[in-house]
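To make this tangible, this section ends with a sequence with its structure tokens:
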Amino acid sequence: TKILTDHLHNYRRDFDKVSGVWKNAPKHDASSHAADAVRTLAVNYLDMSMASGEGGVNIQSFFSWLVYNSY
């Protein structure tokens, strides 16, 4: 988890010195990949929780589903 939090801490956009603005897209590196993974995890967990009804989804069941469906 330390590696993940380090990557999330380093997530950033580049500054365009010519136009003087921040670029819209994030800097494409390991940090952006980690952020994409966390976003995908959160969206899928939310979707599964909403589909399951009031009880929500057990986080262990969710990770089992995620690993199974990743291949």
Summary: The chain has a mean pLDDT of 80. The helical segments are 2-9, 30-52, 59-68. The first strand starts at residue 13 and ends at 16. The longest helix spans residues 30-52.
